[in-house]
Amino acid sequence: MIKKESGVTLIALSIAVIIILTITGMIIYSARDNIYIRNLTNMQNDIANLRDKIAEYYAEYGDIPAKTEYPDISNLQSAGIIGANDTGKFLIIELEYLSGLTLNYGEDYEKYKDGNYTNLADLTDIYIINETSHNIFYVEGIRVKENDTTKMYYTDYTEGDTEAVELKDVQNETEETNQTN
Fold first, then answer.
1. Is residue 82 classed exposed, middle or buried when 0-12, 13-18 and 19+ CB atoms within 10 A define those classes?
2. Domain assignment of residue 39, given as a range
3. How many structural domains comprise the chain?
């Protein structure tokens, strides 16, 4: 009598391991993309919350809650995100004047507030605001991998505010219309 042995062959085991490794790789790749997206969304939410709180502060006091100029905006300039209306100084947002605010980033503000720094430019995990346009920027930026490239995001807009609008003199146009009638 011939005894037939049952069990898993080496080939079947190898195929199962390859399938499991492939699925694991896809899950890890997808999770990494989700982390990039979550980080960018957190920064955008922070900026939206700051914008709302600063607008409330401005409506009440007629000024923005920022006095200290941030010395190094070279990363913002090289990224090309400073718009035509972003003239004037870039100031550190004084978070202590904005009540009921919870942020995901900006931990270097505590160092700034306590004076625990030697150079302001070393504080990069911080939010700054342009004194003229009131656009808000995250100095450190958020790195996001897209396909084979890495992009840096410093604010919640990507195109800047360089769009020019042609203004017409409505009063002269009305006078010309009345003269022709």
1. buried
2. 10-168
3. 1
